[in-house]
Amino acid sequence: MGLAALLGLAALIAALMLLRWYATAHVKTIKKGLAWIGIGLLALVVIFLAVTGRMGAALAALAGLMVWAGRTINVVQMGRRFGGMFGGRKDPQAPTGSSMTAEEAYRVLGLAPGATEDEIKAAHRRLIEQIHPDRGGSDYLAAKVNLAKDFLLKAQGRS
């Protein structure tokens, strides 16, 4: 095998590893990784251009890479936020609407039987802020909390 073939194979393996990491990483981890990659690329370009006597081009490359890194981070964040809107991953064990009892609904929300509408809504709000999928929580737990709130409010004649 020639050197070009080995370099191509190494690049392919590196790309596959990077894609696997991206698919399982959290947004904060991706942001950190992109920031370090951007800093490394920036340093290499600036050093190369400075050594070759093109400091003006080095400064232009610095400004361009900073803009690129910021936009890339924003695109990654936006993709993660809107990923579920277009048939994203769903939890196959998400609860269905008819599978909850009043006792379970009160337990899920951490309330005593006979809680008022305001108490139900406050407990729901408190829990959903902690476990919402957009904040790294579980689709299953968020669905359970929503189902419990809806069940109890419907049982009280409200929705």
Protein architecture, described:
This protein has about 160 residues and is an all-alpha fold. It has two domains: about 5-85, no CATH class; about 100-155, DnaJ domain (Helix Hairpins, Orthogonal Bundle), CATH 1.10.287. It has helices at about 5-25, 25-50, 55-80, 100-110, 115-130, 140-155. Helix 2 (about 25-50) runs antiparallel to helix 3 (about 55-80) and helix 5 (about 115-130) runs antiparallel to helix 6 (about 140-155). The termini are far apart. The model has no long low-confidence stretch (mean pLDDT about 80).
Indicate the topology.
Elements: H1 3-24, H2 27-51, H3 55-82, H4 102-109, H5 117-131, H6 139-155
Helix pairs in contact: 2-3, 4-6, 5-6
Helix content: over 70%
The rough form would be described as elongated
**Percentage beta strand:** under 5%
- The number of strands is 0
Based on CA atoms alone, the radius of gyration comes out at 25 Å
How would you classify the helix and strand content by structural class?
A: mainly alpha
Biggest beta sheet summary: none
Span between N and C termini? 69 Å
Task: Give the rounded overall mean pLDDT.
Answer: 82
Provide the number of structural domains. Answer: 2
Low-pLDDT sequence parts: none
Order of helices and strands: HHHHHH
Q: How many helix segments?
A: 6
Which descriptors would you attach to this protein?
single chain, 159 residues, mainly alpha, Helix Hairpins, 2 domains, 6 helices, 72% helix
